[in-house]
Amino acid sequence: MVTTPLSSQPAPTLSPLNVPQRLLLGPGPSNVNPVVLAAMNTPPLGHLDPDFLGIMDEIQTLLRYVWQTQNRLTYAISGTGTAAMEATLANAIEPGDRVVVCVKGYFGHRLVDMAQRYGAQVHAIHQTWGQPFSKESIQNAIETHRPAVLAIVHAETSTGVRQPLEGLSDLCQAHGTLLLVDTVTSMGGVPIKLDEWGIDLAYSCSQKGLACPPGASPFTLSDRAYAKLQKRSGKVPNWYLDATLLEKYWGSERVYHHTAPINMYYALREALRLLAEEGIENAWERHQQNAEYLWSQLEAIGLQMHVAKEYRLPTLTTVRIPEGIDGKAIARRLLLDYNIEVGGGLGELGGKVWRIGLMGYNSRPENVDRLLQAFKEVL
Amino acid sequence: MVTTPLSSQPAPTLSPLNVPQRLLLGPGPSNVNPVVLAAMNTPPLGHLDPDFLGIMDEIQTLLRYVWQTQNRLTYAISGTGTAAMEATLANAIEPGDRVVVCVKGYFGHRLVDMAQRYGAQVHAIHQTWGQPFSKESIQNAIETHRPAVLAIVHAETSTGVRQPLEGLSDLCQAHGTLLLVDTVTSMGGVPIKLDEWGIDLAYSCSQKGLACPPGASPFTLSDRAYAKLQKRSGKVPNWYLDATLLEKYWGSERVYHHTAPINMYYALREALRLLAEEGIENAWERHQQNAEYLWSQLEAIGLQMHVAKEYRLPTLTTVRIPEGIDGKAIARRLLLDYNIEVGGGLGELGGKVWRIGLMGYNSRPENVDRLLQAFKEVL
């Protein structure tokens, strides 16, 4: 066979990749530990190679440690955090299920939209962007709706609020409700203990507290959540994220499901290994200390934090944009003149706050100093 | 806040990542061009950084070239090829739509399963594993069922068959049917011209003909497919893969949807750039020549190909396992003693064939020689 000539389009001519070096102090991605980045530059193995299967087992063990869970079904979803979010809902919800979603920021709204697509009867409860829910308001919603699933964000990336989760599992279990928690901006940087707190479904991402590039995302199901999945009458309406198929690849059967993003799994394994080497409680402490240093330095130049200190995330800080200042223009100058990325406000907080992340490898005093120096110059 | 001590699990202790170097001559992933692999080791940018948005534009331009299409909606899905497969179905199908799936191998069955999950009334037609469909049998199915979508695999990774696609679009358009094509094992290695052949929806992967790691997967929609999407009555029942949301991120609006797998996009951009530099028609010709060399060398040691030469893929060859030979044991020896991966049979061809890929960077005569030397020693 001789290949026929092209009909139309000529080949584009491009230069080799050339990327500026930025300090990523926005809501994520954050900078990657160089050891993890180097692991990306490792030749791929086959997705059923015994050596690769061993790496998958290590990822499972390390994720259980970082999340403090014994859940058998604890592995990575082959996509970014949003895919892992969708995986929890797709597997937990059957059409017609009542689901209570606690909305106190952008990602609560996303949970509502996703849950509806999976046929849930969603009851959203709302809290001001910048405050956590009280236990009483959640209790009311559970008692009123007796939902199959209660979904709540631990660390709202859009507001910088840490939602206390202790005590919710008792309420949930008393009403046959599964507790589903977004730990995207908490995993690796904010204390979280899935089993002690009775969390049934959780997801996260790789590019924040884990200091890994985005593309492979932590996911876990408790035995209670698995029991609901086993009893569902129809197939999970999402093939790629179907946990009944994924467990056959991640578990002992090793049945081919999809080609894993091999190099992303290398990086995730290394990121988790380094976190275990540091010790998860030391990582939590480091994030807290550096965040407190950031807050004191920002306050010293007259800036105000949006969230009360008690509920402020150590990983992501929302800083109020002072009156008369064009927040977007400042962020653009920081990016283009100083190579520092900070985030703008999202949704209700658009134009009102900057979002400053100190996550994973970036949670270090010298990054606070570099940011503050730049802030002083541009403000 | 002082972080509370851990309740239970101690930190696992692991050595740094240590991965053997394999020559990946199975059905994929294949080895990655070192330039592409090095691009993975580039610090991430933010997913809304102007420099990153420029890279996304380049990916779109390059994908249009490699697929030979002008489709505006041509971009990468942030997952592996299976996610891109699901993206085409999730966006094309509305509940109750009739869908004809041409099943002549494992991935046809996967299309059936996925399409059913999106509420399609699926009519599968079947062909022997190892042969293509005739145009007549497809015409019959279209005339009988008048489906909304006809789904067919161009290059069946499980059988090594190339399905001729020329002429199908006339049949489809005459009956208001969208033509959906799996190009996972053809893109970059087997001639394909989406616009000339009137293909409405297509998907692929990065880890075969493109010589990139897996994790970011080509996806495209024609104007006809987009028109159907615009008219649907409900939301796409998959949030992560919803093309109406994705176009706002990939298009001029630049609305945040999900955090792209930044480093995977770097790699995909470089892999596509190198393919454009080689020239897509030269890449097709190279794959054909090296495959013919492989076939002649395998025949010279007495092995038989499973597929007639006319329909044999240049990217993936199915070789019959001779009587009395334990195919699995041979593959295992090649892997562990020679660091060469070849694939076993899948589904109906389990135990009957080896699957040998010569894809992307691996399509080179020296790889054929190395494989043949090893084959001669183990057989």
UniProtKB/TrEMBL annotation, chains A, B:
<feature type="modified residue" description="N6-(pyridoxal phosphate)lysine">
    <location>
        <position position="208"/>
    </location>
</feature>
<dbReference type="InterPro" id="IPR020578">
    <property type="entry name" value="Aminotrans_V_PyrdxlP_BS"/>
</dbReference>
<dbReference type="InterPro" id="IPR015421">
    <property type="entry name" value="PyrdxlP-dep_Trfase_major"/>
</dbReference>
<dbReference type="InterPro" id="IPR015424">
    <property type="entry name" value="PyrdxlP-dep_Trfase"/>
</dbReference>
<keyword id="KW-0663">Pyridoxal phosphate</keyword>
<dbReference type="Pfam" id="PF00266">
    <property type="entry name" value="Aminotran_5"/>
</dbReference>
<feature type="domain" description="Aminotransferase class V">
    <location>
        <begin position="47"/>
        <end position="370"/>
    </location>
</feature>
<dbReference type="InterPro" id="IPR024169">
    <property type="entry name" value="SP_NH2Trfase/AEP_transaminase"/>
</dbReference>
<dbReference type="InterPro" id="IPR015422">
    <property type="entry name" value="PyrdxlP-dep_Trfase_small"/>
</dbReference>
<feature type="binding site">
    <location>
        <position position="355"/>
    </location>
    <ligand>
        <name>substrate</name>
    </ligand>
</feature>
<comment type="similarity">
    <text>Belongs to the class-V pyridoxal-phosphate-dependent aminotransferase family.</text>
</comment>
<protein>
    <submittedName>
        <fullName>Alanine--glyoxylate aminotransferase family protein</fullName>
    </submittedName>
</protein>
<keyword id="KW-0808">Transferase</keyword>
<keyword id="KW-0032">Aminotransferase</keyword>
<dbReference type="GO" id="GO:0019752">
    <property type="term" value="P:carboxylic acid metabolic process"/>
</dbReference>
<dbReference type="GO" id="GO:0008483">
    <property type="term" value="F:transaminase activity"/>
</dbReference>
<dbReference type="InterPro" id="IPR000192">
    <property type="entry name" value="Aminotrans_V_dom"/>
</dbReference>
